[in-house]
Design brief:
about 220 residues; alpha+beta
């Protein structure tokens, strides 16, 4: 399932990031793809630089401080994003993300994130497509929005047919490995916030908070 996070980046922060990202140097994305994904990866990605690190740090900070993302993912670590540029005819065929990423510091990929940097009116095609048990889900969100989905799913990026698609892709390792447990905790977190908004710190809020805390204590890797 794709979760839409609107306006992860907005205003001057988004404008500045778009300008910086467009000035980055790019190389074929197949250089960093796994041996099987290399067969279906046809895009360009930003070359390492201090300018790229600024873009990466801005996105990681935005994710790490976003209340919905934090409650839903419970991130332990977020990988430095890959900034990807796809022109006409380019995309990324069906693949699954590597379970473990990194070299000096390894990260288990529990959740995948795509942050859209291009306005959807600037390109045709280029939809993110995630395969689920209920069928395919697609995402082509506004600039600054993020799509969050399980790294355990097969997914693809359809070829661009007009313009250019600029995105940042990254992955998070959760403190709670099991996706069903993360979903249960996210439901409890939303429920207790709704109770608090309507009734304040009442008995129902305290009971939900107790259950949330004790399940997190049981399931979390720290």
């Amino acid at each position: 399932m794709i979760v839409h996070i609107p306006s992860l980046l907005a205003g001057e922060v988004l404008t500045d990031l778009q300008e910086r990202a467009r000035r980055l140097a790019f190389e074929p994305g197949s250089k960093t793809a796994g041996w099987h994904a290399r067969l279906v990866k046809s895009n360009m990605q930003a070359v390492g630089s201090s300018a790229l690190r600024h873009v990466q740090d801005t996105i990681v900070n935005a994710l790490g401080t976003h209340s919905v993302f934090s409650a839903m993912v419970l991130p332990r670590r977020i990988a430095p994003p890959i900034v990807s540029l796809s022109g006409v005819g380019e995309g990324y065929g069906t693949h699954i993300d590597d379970a473990i990423m990194g070299r000096a510091s390894l990260l288990r990929t529990d959740v995948s994130i795509t942050v859209f940097l291009s306005d959807p009116a600037d390109y045709d095609g280029g939809e993110l497509v995630v395969e689920t048990l209920a069928g395919e889900e697609t995402a082509k969100f506004a600039a600054g929005d993020a799509a969050v989905y399980p790294s355990t799913t097969l997914h693809r990026v359809d070829p661009v047919t007009r313009g250019e698609r600029l995105v940042a892709a990254t992955w998070a390792e959760s403190r709670v490995r099991d996706a069903a447990c993360r979903e249960a905790l996210f439901d409890l977190e939303r429920a207790r916030r709704q109770v608090f908004e309507k009734q304040g710190k009442c008995e129902a809020f305290d009971l939900i908070s107790k259950t949330y805390a004790n399940l997190l204590r049981r399931w979390a890797d720290v």
